[in-house]
Every structure is written in structure tokens, then in C-alpha cells.
Amino acid sequence: MVARFIYIADTHLGARPMGYQMQQGHPERIAEILQALEGFIGETGGIDFVLHGGDMVDAATEANIRSAADTFQLSVPVYLCLGNHDLTDERSLGMWQSLAPTFFPGGRPEFTIQAGPGAVHVVPNHWEAERPYFWGDRQDAQFSPDQLDWLRRAGAAATESVTVVATHCPALGLPPEQTGFDEAYHSPPPGFRESLVQPALDGRERGGAGPLVVLGAHNHMNMHVELEGADYVTASSLSEVPFECKLFEVSAGQVTMSTHSLGARLDFESQYDYDRTYVQGRPIDRAFSRATA
Predict the structure, then answer these.
(1) Domain count across the chain
(2) Cα(283)–Cα(248) distance, rounded to whole angstroms?
(3) 31-56 pLDDT tens trace
(4) Cβ atoms within 10 Å, residue 203
(5) What gap in Å lies between CA 140 and CA 187, rounded to an integer?
(6) Exposed e or buried b for every residue in 108-130, given b needs 16+ CB within 10 A?
(7) b (16+ CB within 10 A) / e for 214-232
(8) What is the rounded CA–CA span in Å between residue 74 and residue 37?
(9) Are 41 and 35 in contact (CB under 8 A)?
(10) 175 preceded by cis ω (within 30°)?
(11) What's the CATH number where 173 sits?
(12) What pLDDT digit, counting tens, does each position of 19-35 carry?
């Protein structure tokens, strides 16, 4: 059995323009970009779902969330890991749950998606301890004890041969080998990676388990780093040139990722910044395959 899903991120619907972008952004063209994605889904075949890694909207207003619920109606289910821009109002979570419930299986922001012989555990990080599911002006990515307990139970109960854990904040910064910078770029707070990964492993015997993939977004860049037996992946913004998505294929004991541009399917003019090719990444950042050792 093979399961296939598409990973996208940082569409910032409603932005005029995007406040942060690594390549030229076109959130105003998201309907056309999603139509191109539909074409890719149809030609690829066998896609089970689309997972959005967060920042679906640029601000959590009722109008933006209603627009997202309408715009992201695709031929396959779409699920959302809430990002910081999705949580700009203290009522954000309730608005998402009432206005766009299909994005959240089981009705909660933490959920598990079955992907054939694999499982995808979605757990959106918080940005401040005092106000969960809210982003003001702090970038202190963290998880609550309840979230970590949920992830620990999900990991302990897992019988699947491939485990994917998705949150919004990247678990690692982009390595200097990719960017040419002196140090890792856009790194998370200290201890963030460990706090995310360890609960997913608790209760499992990693010696007999299959690959572990940790998905992030937020940085608008493609990245893939293998570290201590896990593969860490982030995605560039679907709304930015060259409008890329990632295809994951999960089979027994194996996971494969590839990155695909939708730019050739779009007929509006856009400009690519060749001084920032590190955004698209090296070959290793764009594709990999991992199997149980």
C-alpha cells in the first residue's frame, strides 16, 4: 500500500502585500495557484490529502477565514496546522473551528491523519505560554504540557511504520551549507526541537520503527536535514515564485519526498530573485528517500 499527500505552506491569503517573503509573493493570485495545484493533483493521481503547514491566511479575521474555507476547497481533503498568522486574534481558534471545521479532523487543532502505513501527527506550536493559540508580537515557539502529553500518547499508540510530525515553527535553522551564511538561519528557540521530537518517540522502540519525518513551515524556504535518525523538512511559500509544493509518498517502512514547481502552469507575470536561490534549496533539500534500516 502506498499513500500520497501534498505538503504546502505560508499562503498568506488576504495579504496586501505579504509582510515577510523570501521570493516575490502573489497571495492575491492564490485561487489561480490552487487551480494549478489541482492540475498537478489530477495528473499525479492517487493523492489522499493536502496538508497545509500554517499561515494559510495573513491575519485571523472572520472574512479571511471564511475566504480560506471557500478557496481551499479542493478535490481531496485539506488539513491545516495553524501558524502564527492564523492566530492573530484571541478568538482565532474558535473562529477556525466554527467557520472551517473540515480542516481539523476530530474538531481539534491537534489531530492525526492516517497515511496508509504511516501516520501524520499535527500539533501547532504556541507563541506564548499565557495565551495559547494566539500570536501577538512574540516569536517564542513552544508547546503546552497538554500538547506534549497528546503527542506522547499518539506516539505510544502508533503501530505505523512511518511517523510524520508536523508543526509550524521549524525545528531546525537552515544550515550554513545551504545558505552560505556564517550560522544557521531562522533557528527556533533552544530546546524546541527536543521538546517536539522526544514525546513522539516516547513509548516506541525506535530500533524497530520506521522513518521519522518532522515537518515545519514559517521560514518560507525549502530545507531537508537528517539529524539523529530523523528527517527535518520545511517548505517554501506556495504563494511565492516559483510556487512550489512537496509530494510525500509513504509505503511500508519507507518515505519519499519530492518538490514540484507550479510556475509553468500559471500565466501571470512574476519575477524570481536569483540572489536567493538558497530558498529553493539544494537537491538534498528538494528530494530524499528514507527506508527502515
Answers:
(1) 1
(2) 16
(3) 999 999 999 999 999 999 999 999 99
(4) 13
(5) 11
(6) ebbbbbebbbbbbbbbbbbbeee
(7) bbbbbbbbbbbbeeeebbb
(8) 9
(9) no
(10) no
(11) 3.60.21.10
(12) 999 999 999 999 999 99
Q: Residue 16 has which C-alpha cell?
A: 496586501
3-state secondary structure of 113: strand
**Beta bridge mates, 174:** 185
The grid coordinates listed for 157 are 499508540
- Joined grid coordinates for residue 259: 518538490
Could you give the residue ranges of the DSSP H alpha helices within the chain? 30-44, 62-71, 92-99, 145-157, 176-179, 192-201, 283-286
SS3 248: strand
pTM of the entire predicted model? 0.97
Full domain range(s) for residue 279: 3-291
The neighbour count for residue 253, using CB atoms within 10 Å, is: 17
Q: Is the pLDDT of residue 216 over 90?
A: yes
The per-residue pLDDT for range 134-172, each reduced to its tens digit, is 999 899 999 999 999 999 888 766 666 889 999 999 999
- Measured in residues, the chain has a length of 293
How high is the pLDDT of residue 237? 98
